[in-house]
Structures are given as C-alpha cells and as structure tokens.
Recover the amino acids of this structure.
C-alpha cells in the first residue's frame, strides 16, 4: 500500500502502524510543539508520527520502541547495523549511542517494533529506510 504525496507528485511508501502510551504521547507532543521554531522539519515529522500512532495501555507496549528503549536497527541502504538508546534531547550523546527523539532517526523509530521498516526524509532531503531488528527491554 502506498500513499500519494500531492506536493511532490510521487508515491510515498505506506507507514507502518505504531503504538505509544498516552503519557509519553502527551510529553512528546509538547516537545514537538515547543521545538517547532528551532527544528521545524523534525518537529513536524515527530508530530505527524504521534498523530498517526495508536495510543494504548502501558502493558500493551511489550517490544515497542519507547523513550529509553535500546534498539538495534539496520540502515536499509548500507546494511549497517546500529544499536542505540532513544532519549530526550537533554540526554542525547552520540558517543554513547544515545540518540535524541528530535532527530530524523529518533522520530522515525518511536512506536515501532522488531521487524518493522520505515522510510523518512533526512535533513539533506534524501529518503532513508531502516528496519528494526530488536527492541531490548
């Protein structure tokens, strides 16, 4: 299934279903709104992801990427595997593989589960795909 993007006149891949807890959704929505002026593209992307997410109970999020999750993913273009922890901006540290939710990769990962794939736009306007290999509790 594909979505049609009227702005670019090209087909967009269908986005995978995602889940998020209500409290986390509220906090991330506030973060996206408060950073819209500083980081408009990624804040808008995060806001769109949160809008399409299914809000669910905490106990229904086993194996779902949440804030603080340790995640192994594969870059679909290069095949490179990476293990990161998804964190809030003030906790980010690239040397410790702590990736902010306010990065394209971070915003793309939230709510996904192992085996899911997503495509997103990088700051240089390239399309990048990644596949979640594991979510470590």
């Amino acid at each position: 299934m594909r979505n049609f993007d009227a702005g670019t006149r090209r087909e967009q891949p269908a986005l995978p279903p995602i889940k998020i807890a209500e409290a986390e959704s509220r906090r991330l929505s506030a973060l996206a709104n408060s950073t819209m002026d500083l980081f408009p593209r990624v804040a808008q992307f995060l806001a769109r992801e949160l809008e399409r997410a299914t809000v669910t109970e905490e106990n229904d999020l086993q194996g779902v990427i949440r804030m603080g999750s340790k995640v192994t993913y594969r870059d679909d273009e290069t095949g490179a595997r990476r293990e990161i922890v998804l964190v809030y901006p003030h906790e980010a540290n690239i040397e410790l593989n702590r990736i902010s939710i306010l990065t394209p990769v971070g915003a793309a990962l939230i709510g996904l589960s192992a085996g899911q794939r997503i495509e997103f736009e990088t700051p240089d306007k390239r399309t990048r795909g990644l596949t979640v290999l594991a979510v470590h509790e």
About this structure: Residues 22-34 form the longest helix (13 residues).
